[in-house]
């Protein structure tokens, strides 16, 4: 599998998206492989083409390829079957960005045809698929998106800043703390998340603190799990283990063994 990352070079788009990414694979005559992605509270816009080993089209989340797909915030691990061959160019948007562009809330756990939200995706898809380089594909997508981008609304920027603060400040462990620095009530925070982010503040908080827990174990696989749980806001280790397994697919102990290279 080949992966790539590209900067957003359009100033207008940079207010809404933080990166382009690409992935491609070609797997014929090989065992089926599954890729699991641990998700963040963001939407992705993808331009995808692919075919199965028997020559038929690949289908992702009920959408037949080739297609331009908008994937909203995914609340579980995102699973992709690596079969046949495929090539994808994606745009990772900032938290709340697609709801701001669409002018309406977008529910979580959806894979939508992009024309449901933005116009002109069919022509853009054909141009993207005809372009051989990721850099050229990026320019096509930026040129298409720019005229459809509104001036960033203050509420959107505030919602995105709240999510950024949760990511950056591991001392935020309760919903009540999220709006403190911005002088917002819990109800105001919940309203912003409902309008723009597509998931609850509690979900984002849990997701970010579990990322911090995984990072702690990456840095020190022998770290005390009870200390990590308490420091990051869990009242008991059993709830920490349950949440860790639900989001990351393994227990903290199993994750630590993998991080250390030790096998039972």
UniProtKB/TrEMBL annotation:
Annotated protein name in UniProt: HTH araC/xylS-type domain-containing protein
- Specify the HTH araC/xylS-type domain's residue ranges: 167-258
- Keywords from the named record: DNA-binding, Transcription, Transcription regulation
Q: Do you know which Gene3D superfamilies this protein is assigned to?
A: Homeodomain-like (1.10.10.60)
Query: What Pfam families does UniProt report for this protein, alphabetically?
Result: DUF6597, HTH_18
Q: Which GO terms describe its molecular function?
A: DNA-binding transcription factor activity; sequence-specific DNA binding
């Amino acid at each position: 599998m080949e992966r790539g990352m590209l900067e957003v070079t359009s100033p207008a788009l940079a207010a809404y998206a933080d990166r382009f990414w690409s992935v491609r694979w070609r797997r014929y005559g090989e065992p089926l492989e599954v890729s699991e992605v641990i998700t963040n509270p963001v939407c992705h816009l993808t331009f995808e083409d692919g075919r199965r080993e028997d020559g038929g089209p690949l289908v992702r989340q009920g959408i037949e390829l080739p297609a331009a797909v908008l994937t909203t915030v995914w609340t579980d691990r995102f699973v992709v079957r690596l079969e046949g061959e495929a090539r994808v160019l994606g745009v990772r948007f900032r938290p709340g960005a697609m709801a701001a562009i669409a002018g309406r809330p977008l529910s979580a756990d959806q894979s939508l045809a992009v024309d449901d939200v933005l116009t002109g995706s069919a022509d853009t898809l054909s141009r993207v698929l005809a372009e051989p380089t990721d850099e050229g594909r990026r320019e096509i997508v930026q040129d298409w998106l720019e005229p459809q981008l509104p001036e960033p609304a203050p509420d959107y920027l505030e919602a995105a800043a709240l999510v950024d603060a949760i990511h950056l400040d591991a001392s935020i462990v309760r919903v009540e703390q999220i709006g403190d620095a911005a002088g917002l009530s819990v109800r105001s925070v919940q309203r912003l998340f409902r309008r723009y982010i597509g998931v609850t503040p509690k979900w984002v908080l849990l997701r970010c603190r579990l990322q911090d827990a995984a990072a702690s174990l990456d840095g020190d696989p022998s770290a005390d799990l009870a200390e990590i749980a308490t420091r990051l806001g869990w009242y008991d280790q059993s709830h920490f283990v349950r949440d860790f397994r639900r989001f990351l697919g393994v227990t903290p102990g199993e994750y630590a063994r993998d991080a250390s290279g030790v096998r039972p």
